[in-house]
Specification:
Length: about 150
């Protein structure tokens, strides 16, 4: 397993927890999570990029999820699947160094590990629709989007 996949899985674990406890302060939850679970020094920068990036784009990402998941309301999706896709969508849209097909494949593999037997197919279908919607193949970063690193300041 690559260190990036481990980092994605760690981000998923935090976002899953945050999604279930959104009434609590994000920063406090993040601090508690990092104290309880070892986030390796090497993966720290990418972990923060993912969790802050998803957090800062939560509404936008969820709108894309809603548009792209036929007959599924976001709240009715399995929380694990929903958060796997949030991470993948963030990577597809805002991480220039991550090709869309890599983000999709990583999400599928993580879905196989953490989701149900149907998760990987569901994740693949939704993310493929998003990829086709933007029609930019491997590099989906829309030029009009701002930098999520700046948004967390």
């Amino acid at each position: 397993m690559t260190s990036r996949r481990r980092t994605r899985e760690t981000a998923l674990q935090f976002l899953f927890s945050y999604d279930l406890n959104r009434a609590k302060d994000f920063e406090e939850q993040l601090e508690d999570f990092c104290e309880r679970f070892s986030v390796s020094r090497k993966s720290f920068p990418y972990f923060f990029k993912l969790v802050y990036g998803v957090k800062s784009r939560w509404k936008e990402i969820d709108e894309l999820l809603a548009e792209s998941s036929e007959h599924w309301k976001i709240r009715r999706m399995a929380s694990v699947d929903r958060n796997i896709m949030r991470v993948a969508i963030f990577e597809m849209l805002y991480c220039e160094d991550v090709p869309a097909r890599v983000a999709i494949n990583e999400a599928i593999e993580i879905g196989k590990r953490y989701g149900t037997e149907n998760s990987s197919a569901f994740i693949n279908g939704v993310l493929d629709r998003i990829n086709r919607k933007f029609g930019q193949g491997d590099n989906m970063v829309p030029e009009s989007k701002s930098n999520p690193e700046q948004d967390k300041e």
